[in-house]
Amino acid sequence: MTVFITIALTVLVFGTLILVHELGHYITARIFDVHILEFSIGMGPKIISRKSKKTDILYSLRLLPIGGYVQMVGENGEDEADEALRKKYALEPSGEGSKDFENNIDASLNGAQYEDDPRALSKKPVWQRMIIIAAGGLTNIIIGLLLSFAMVISMQGMGGTAVAEFHEGAVSCQNDGLRENDIILKVNNTRVNTHMFLAYSIMYYGYQPMDITIVRGADISYNDKGEMTGYKGGEKMVLHDVTFAIETEDKANLSYGVVDFMVYRVEKNFLSVVSQSLEYGRMMIKTVWDSLHDLVVGKYGIEAFSGPVGVSSEIGTAARSGSTSFLYIVVLLSINLGIINLLPIPALDGGHLLFYVIELIRRKPVSAKLRAKINGVAMMLIFGFAIFIMFKDIVNLFV
Questions:
Q1: Is the pLDDT assigned to residue 36 strictly greater than 90?
Q2: Is 42 left (phi over 0), alpha (psi -120 to 50) or beta?
Q3: Torsion angle of the four alpha carbons 344, 348, 349, 353, in this order, in degrees rounded to the nearest 10
Q4: What is the CATH number of domain 158-267?
Q5: What is the DSSP annotation of 29-57?
Q6: Which residues of 271-285 are buried (b: 16+ CB within 10 A; e: fewer)?
Q7: pLDDT value for 311
Q8: Which pLDDT score is estimated for 399?
Q9: What are the strands, taking DSSP E only, across the chain?
Q10: Is the Cβ–Cβ distance between 15 and 40 less than 8 Å?
Q11: Integer CA distances (angstroms), 225 to 60, 157, 196, in order
């Protein structure tokens, strides 16, 4: 796969995820009748824009595929700065007919004070504002879960958690460890129902001895394809201090367990597809959450971070590996984008939600000027960190 195709595919993936995210904000804002000024995909200079004659909303495509926004009246609170911001976005040149658009906007602003706009976001109840702000991240998570169904359907076979056979030199079957036909229920305290969730849990926890909950001695049933259809009986037990071989990634300073056995396939039907799809979604959410936790506690070094350049390489690799691998990375990115945006970090959606929670407690909004200062500092830190990670990824391409 050429570099050009990889870049184009990366832009397509990120652009689609951004579009989905902003549509979450846009649709809920329209439902609650919030005055929307602009719906933009991308940041920076405009490539193309069009103003709707019906709604007066400006729809824009911008040069840099690193984000997007839904510009709403009153999203920064009830102060004069919002009116200036409104003019800034509304009066940007928008191509053919832009003069008429500017004149209409100016006439509108001169004819009515911005603070009196009943459709301003700041005029809406707090619970409506919270739904509108949370809708972007939640939409990414929901789309990620839906794509999990497509990923499972595209699989030639679905793996379960029943041990079929061990690889040569396997470690986990030693010292009263796992046995063939053991059905694994939990790795430490994590419930597992699919082979991929099982593999992830062993990799994540397996750098040290762990407890594995199993059912042993069950009567396993199969269909004519040799796929597992269910089991009955057996004894539930916990195997303590099960060990796996460990591999270390020196660049990222990571150690992880190595899965040393194969599992039985499970029968593919409607119920099993739904069940496995939900489990894959749950696994993705846990993957993102574990990564955030490990970041906070310092388990990972800066080498483990990747920005758009590093992710682009992973997207290209996944695309070459087939549709299932490609869908896997898209699902992970979508859920990751949703969760990260909902974290209570200033300048992100979760930061705005935090301000709304404080407003509910105080029974009055946080000062718009204070919010602007906090969000401004946070945005500079986020962009600075992003630029640093991008530079690191570029350097790694040549190392």
A1: yes
A2: left
A3: 40
A4: 2.30.42.10
A5: HHHTT--EEEEEEEEEEEEEEEE-TTT-P
A6: ebeebbbbbbbbbbb
A7: 66
A8: 60
A9: 36-51, 58-72, 158-166, 183-187, 190-191, 210-216, 219-222, 228-232, 235-242, 246-249, 254-257, 261-266
A10: no
A11: 53, 11, 21
Q: What values do phi and psi take at 160, rounded to 5?
A: -100, -150
Q: Would you say 10 and 315 are in contact if contact means Cβ atoms under 8 Å apart?
A: yes
Domain boundaries along the sequence of the chain: 158-267
Cα separation, 184 vs 163, in Å, equals 8
| pTM, rounded to two decimals | 0.79
φ and ψ at residue 179, rounded to 5 degrees: -130, 160
Q: What is the pLDDT of residues 323-364, one digit of tens each?
A: 778 888 888 889 989 998 999 988 889 999 999 999 999 988
Tell which residue, 64, 121, 57, has the closest CA to residue 89: 57
Whose CA is closest to 36, among 98, 107, 90?
A: 90
Which residues lie below 8 Å from residue 277, measured CB to CB, with a gap of 6+?
A: 145, 148, 149, 151, 152
Mention every residue, 6+ apart, whose C-beta is less than 8 A from residue 5: 316
Cα angle 41, 46, 51 (rounded to 5 degrees) comes to 75
Pairwise CA distance, residues 39 & 68, whole Å: 8
> 208 by DSSP, 3-state: which?
coil
Going by pLDDT thresholds of 50, 70 and 90, the confidence category of residue 221 is: very high
Place of tokens 């499970």: 266
The rounded distance, in Å, linking the Cα atoms of 374 and 334 is 27
154 within 8 A of 107, measured Cβ to Cβ: no
Q: How far apart are CA 180 and CA 78, in angstroms?
A: 66
Nearest residue to 112 (alpha-carbon basis) of 83, 140, 77, 89: 83
pLDDT at 78: 54
Q: Read off the pLDDT of residues 275-331 as tens digits, 9 standing for 90 and up.
A: 898 898 888 889 888 888 887 777 766 666 666 666 666 677 767 767 778 888 888
